[in-house]
Amino acid sequence: MHALSAGVAQPASAAPGLPYANPIKSQKGADPWLEYYNGNYYLITTTFTNKLLMRKSPTLAGLATAPSVQVWEDSTSSRGTNFWAPEIHFIDNRWYLYYSGAQVGAPCCDTQRTHVLESAGWSTSVAARYSTSTPAAPPTAPTSSSGRG
């Protein structure tokens, strides 16, 4: 059946067959973040542990066999478990890595919070070591000298 029939959109359906297997990361590949920078692809995904791992390859296919490099590990009790949804961003000549982490021993997902890491020094390497895990907070609105926003 065509996606459009007499000008009316029809819902899409999955093709019959085998379930889809991710050809790039078959295990622990949830919440993928892919960044292309300086001739390489960088892939970081959810680990559900206290570690953040990254893969690097000049091709997308190469990510399937690229080694996972640990870029962050945290055992701080307030944020040291259940890492989810990492993202990497290059801002003002530094890499920033955002992720969600939870309090060790707390029930899932009551204490899940977003944190941000900054690359150690100026770095053009996405897979650099990161430091300073800080809770990510929304920016506050500037206040005028009168104190009335």
From TrEMBL:
Q: Does the keyword Signal apply?
A: yes
Q: Name one GO molecular function term.
A: hydrolase activity, hydrolyzing O-glycosyl compounds
Chain segments annotated as transmembrane? none
Alphabetical list of InterPro entries matching this protein? Glyco_hydro_43, Glyco_hydro_beta-prop_sf
Q: Which residues form a coiled coil?
A: none
Q: Which Gene3D superfamilies match?
A: Glycosyl hydrolase domain, family 43
Keyword terms of this UniProt record? Glycosidase, Hydrolase, Signal
Q: Which Pfam families match?
A: Glyco_hydro_43
Domain of life assignment: Bacteria
From the UniProt record, give one GO term of the biological process aspect: carbohydrate metabolic process
Fetch the PANTHER family from UniProt: GLYCOSYL HYDROLASE, HYDROLASE, FAMILY 43, PUTATIVE (AFU_ORTHOLOGUE AFUA_3G01660)-RELATED
Question: In which family does this protein belong, per the annotation?
Answer: Belongs to the glycosyl hydrolase 43 family.
- What is the recorded name of this protein? GH43 family beta-xylosidase
